[in-house]
Amino acid sequence: MKKNIIFLILFFLTGCISETITTTKIPCPSVFFAAEHNKYIASNIQPISVDELSYRAELNNYSFISDCSIKDGMVQADLSILFIITPYLVEVSKVSLPFYVGILNEGNTLIDMQYYRVEGNLKTDSESEQYIEKELKTTIAIKVSSQNYKPNTENSIVVGFMLDKEKLDILN
Length: 172
Prior knowledge:
Blueprint lengths: L1 H15 L6 E4 L3 E4 L5 E5 L9 E12 L3 E4 L2 E14 L6 E11 L5 E12 L1 E2 L6 E2 L1 E12 L10 E6 L3 H7 L1
Parallel strand pairs: 2-12
Antiparallel strand pairs: 1-5, 3-4, 4-6, 5-6, 6-11, 7-8, 7-12, 9-10
């Protein structure tokens, strides 16, 4: 019986210990769009031809949805990114945009690279039934270890499309 009472007392005492997770608000980093990777093209025909593009997308704007913070040793930020998609010779209305987010420290050294894909469907005009320009927005949760990220320095985020050599040659 004594063993059970001791066990119950220890159980209740350990159950009352709370772990406090501290969240520290920090300044959000600057965001830049990569100069050579800020446009994306897609085609239904291979090899890609400028005359046979399905659509073209470009990075347009960004915003932080909430405060940037450090929680549990991780820098956290919710970044919303706006893409503008211009249709050309569309055969399939589905759009898929692969992009990356690079996190740089104050010395412009890459400390983390994260890869994403946003998907959506093109819109058609109700009267002409032609595809029209579309805005596509996505929000990503950026998490980076706070070991390499110094919150009170000039950190930055670079966003760009993942492009192969063929697409880079056409765009540049």
